[in-house]
Design a protein that fits this description.
By secondary structure, this protein is mainly α. The chain is built from five helices and no strands.
């Protein structure tokens, strides 16, 4: 499970974008606050609405690519078919929540690290034609600015 940097969502290969959507669904559902993956423990310091907002951006990218994610996931508090919806006790994200760096753990060095991981992934997996256009953009993220 990986929470990809916000700026990488538009260049994720199709398989990884779909996987990101599934991971967001799982995390918003029964996995919220329960994942034993050390790489995700930082996520629990944020309100679930931060993950919901991030998930909306994932679904926006899916829609931009012509996919149709289940509209139920666009509802605040929705946790999937097998989980009870959240109530108003949950802390909402502020209206001015920064889109450029939603999670403080996703700074420039993390984006570079994830870009390198993403490039490595593309060398070991078959990409469809639509995904090939993202390679140069991903490479540009691996260089220091």
């Amino acid at each position: 499970m990986q929470i990809w940097h916000l700026n990488l969502l538009s260049v994720l290969p199709s398989k990884l974008l779909l996987a990101q959507h599934r991971d967001c669904c799982a995390l918003r559902g029964k996995c919220w606050g329960r994942s034993n993956k050390p790489a995700l423990r930082w996520l629990w310091i944020y309100p679930i609405t931060a993950l919901e907002f991030y998930h909306l951006l994932v679904m926006d990218e899916m829609t931009r690519r012509g996919w149709h994610p289940n509209i139920q996931w666009r509802k605040t508090g929705y946790r999937g078919k097998k989980s009870t919806a959240l109530n108003s006790e949950w802390i909402p994200c502020p209206d001015d929540w920064p889109r450029s760096c939603l999670f403080s753990e996703h700074g420039a060095s993390e984006m570079k690290r994830q870009s390198i991981l993403l490039l490595d992934w593309t060398t070991t997996h078959t990409l469809n034609e639509k995904d090939l256009i993202f390679i140069d953009k991903i490479k540009s993220y691996t260089h220091d600015n």
